Automatic annotation (TrEMBL):
Role, per record: Ligates lysine onto the cytidine present at position 34 of the AUA codon-specific tRNA(Ile) that contains the anticodon CAU, in an ATP-dependent manner. Cytidine is converted to lysidine, thus changing the amino acid specificity of the tRNA from methionine to isoleucine.
Root EC class: ligase
Record keyword Ligase present: yes
Name of the gene encoding the protein in the UniProt record: tilS
Binding site for ATP: S29, G30, G31, A32, D33, S34
Protein name: tRNA(Ile)-lysidine synthase
Highest taxon listed in the record's lineage: Bacteria
Amino acid sequence: MNGPVAEIRTAVRRFLDEVRPDAVTVAVSGGADSLALAACVGRFVPGASAVIVDHQLQLGSGDVALRAARQCAEFGLVARVEAVEVSGPGGPEAAARKARYAALRPASGVVLLGHTLDDQAETVLLGLGRGSGPRSIAGMRAFDPPWGRPLLGVSRAATRAFCAEQGIEVWEDPHNSDPSFTRVRLRSEVLPLLEDVLQGGVASSLARTAAQLREDCDALDSLAAAFGGDCCAVDDIAELPVALRRRVLRSWLIDEGVPELSDSHLRRVDALVSEWRGQGGVWLPGGFVVRRAHGRLVVEPQS
Ligand SMILES: Nc1ncnc2c1ncn2[C@@H]1O[C@H](COP(=O)(O)OP(=O)(O)OP(=O)(O)O)[C@@H](O)[C@H]1O
């Protein structure tokens, strides 16, 4: 049997065989991606769980969640709806995402998410546009415990075709057609144009490049972790290749308790090593300042 049903079942089967989780939960939004995933998990791991998070932001959101829960129960999953309170900084989307991931985080086992190849391509383009460093272009991992993404190599179109073929009714998130979201415009305008110009599966090419970049980043990160020198001694780190030096600095600053270090912060700290002309300190999030004194870097709370 060929086609989207076989493709998606194979992807899910392969993921489960590789990871061998002791407990499986599927995170279900009610869209085609996560419903196709839930249908496969119900077939391979009957009795696994499904969680539908109700953000309670739209009228009727509870009905959407209940319908998805009923569908999951039909697939053989033990389904429950988690209603969350969405509040906090950064706008409703960011707050909803934070509340959702907090509600989905399991006590044990893995939580499967329905991210597809197209989500990966959009994530890579978003990272490129932000210019926030190689990690953000390296995209999502298929397995980043406790999160699993069995459909990361499968197109969104295949998940839709899966649901159509299996007679699964799909909920269309109204946000997915709202052009005020950057991701929606990447999906509906930029990626089709790139495909038209470049031809030959641009989403797959982006995802493949992201995977290679991830391997490179992982290799550099482990070299940085194994760095045997004194990461505060300027002489010890000045001769390191810049990609390695910045990683050594990043992990030192994180160990010192500095939260959310952006690429531009890191660049400025690195300048204290590579192009120091007696300049003052670099101010970092969380009220920290890094200074250079007597051939060493020192990080301390801002006074
Ligand atoms: N309300 C929800 N309840 C449970 N799971 C959800 C919900 N919304 C999204 N998910 C899960 O997250 C996956 C990705 O969905 P979506 O891309 O909308 O979320 P996201 O987490 O904001 O994405 P990203 O991680 O790329 O920012 C879905 O396939 C589904 O598995």
